[in-house]
Write a structure and sequence with these properties.
Helices cover 72% and strands 6% of the residues. It is mainly α. The protein has a 3-stranded antiparallel β-sheet with strand order 1-2-3. Strand 2 and strand 3 form a beta hairpin. It is globular. The protein starts with 11 loop residues before the first helix and ends with a helix.
Length: 303
């Protein structure tokens, strides 16, 4: 007897057969990349220089979910398979060399390969902002951090010492150490204290966070590629400049108020205040760029 108008449920075995490849792929991915997954999560939690990953990854997942699947997506099994094979090979080679940075990149490469395999390159371009945020969440290797932080330390020290001298605070500079002195009755100077601009005060931490914010704000608020690129580039001098101002304010407070203000809670509070100021400046730059790109967008729509 045939019953019309009633949907016949699919057999449970068919649902299990359809879900089996997905479960197998998830298990294989977890087993293969378990070490970079756990190592990266541990670094996010324990290393202040990498802590922004705890915010970037959930943000990337949310943005990908909000953007959804591209309407013109189409899986590319060959390209996606080659990307997966390359990611697995990179994972193997990085394990032999004990190179954690490339191991983490291989994990992301495998994720991007799965997206291309299932939905194609158009879907990966559709998710460009979440992909960039995931790339920025990968902690930089220690060698690169040391290479970048030293010039930033020297730059912050030079600008901070110049600002102190501009405000009539006698300050000498020895590398990344600012020497503060007080005048004596005979016209000389006597050393009071010194500020040591450490690697943590180099501004690399705020630079990494501001670059991520530049991509995020540009991807959400701006419409043109040139405006987004300018905003990301603007984040670099903003981070360097405001970190130098932080060094100046610390030296000013130490010189005129109390040496204890150069460390502890007040020092970290000052760092947070400078970062919030940088966020406001970056938001203002995004607003100006948004107004600058409006005429171009109007002409594009009219054309």
């Amino acid at each position: 007897m045939v019953t019309e108008g009633l949907a016949v449920p699919a057999p449970a075995g068919r649902d299990l057969a359809a879900a089996a490849p997905w479960v197998a792929a998830a298990v294989a991915f977890t087993l293969l990349f378990w070490r970079p997954i756990t190592g990266t999560a541990d670094l996010w939690w324990n290393d202040p220089d990498a802590g922004h990953g705890l915010l970037l990854v959930p943000t990337a997942v949310f943005l990908a979910w909000r953007a959804g699947l591209s309407p013109d997506r189409r899986g590319q099994a060959l390209i996606g398979g080659l990307m997966l094979a390359g990611a697995v090979a990179l994972r193997y080679l990085s394990a032999l060399a004990a190179e954690l940075f490339t191991m983490r990149l291989s994990m992301l490469a495998a994720m991007f390969g799965i997206v291309v395999f299932l939905w194609g390159m158009k879907q990966l371009r559709h998710w460009w902002l979440p992909a960039v945020l995931l790339l920025l969440s990968v902690p930089l290797p220690e060698m690169l951090i040391s290479t970048l932080s030293l010039p930033l330390q020297f730059t912050a020290s030079e600008i901070g010492a110049a600002l102190l001298d501009w405000r009539h605070v006698p300050a000498g500079l020895d590398g990344n150490v600012i020497l503060l002195a007080r005048p004596t009755p005979d016209g000389g100077f006597i050393a009071v204290t010194h500020l040591f601009v450490t690697e943590a005060c180099s501004g690399l931490r705020s630079l990494s966070a501001l670059l991520a914010l530049g991509f995020l704000i540009g991807g959400i608020w701006l419409q043109t590629g040139w405006a987004r690129a300018v905003l990301v580039l603007i984040a670099i001098p903003i981070a360097v400049g405001l970190n130098s101002i932080r060094v100046f304010l610390t030296g000013f407070a130490v010189y005129y108020i109390d040496e204890a203000l150069g460390e502890g809670v007040m020092h970290y509070t000052e760092g947070w205040a400078m970062f919030m100021a940088a966020f406001v400046v970056l938001g203002g730059a995004a607003w100006l760029l948004g107004r600058a790109e409006r005429p171009l967008l109007r002409r594009r729509v009219a054309a």
